[in-house]
Amino acid sequence: MKRKVCVLVTARPSYSRIKTALQAIAAHPDLELQLVVAASALLERYGSVINSIEHDGFTVQARVYIVLEGENLVTSAKSTGLAMAELATVFDNLRPDVVVTVADRYETLATAAAAAYMNIPVAHVQGGEVTGSIDEKVRHAVTKLSNLHLVSTVGARERVIRMGETDESVVVTGCPSIDLAAAVRSSAALDFDPFTRYGGVGERLDLSNGYLIVMQHPVTTEFEGARTQMEETLQALSAIDLPVLLFWPNVDAGSEGTAKSIRVFREQHHAQKMHMFRNMLPEDFLRLAVHSACVVGNSSVAIRECSFLGVPAVNIGSRQQGRERGGNVVDVPHQRDAIAAAIRRQIERPRPLSDALYGDGKAGARIAQELATRELSIEKRLTY
Question: How crowded is the C-beta side of 218, counted as CA atoms within 13 Å?
Answer without folding.
Answer: 26
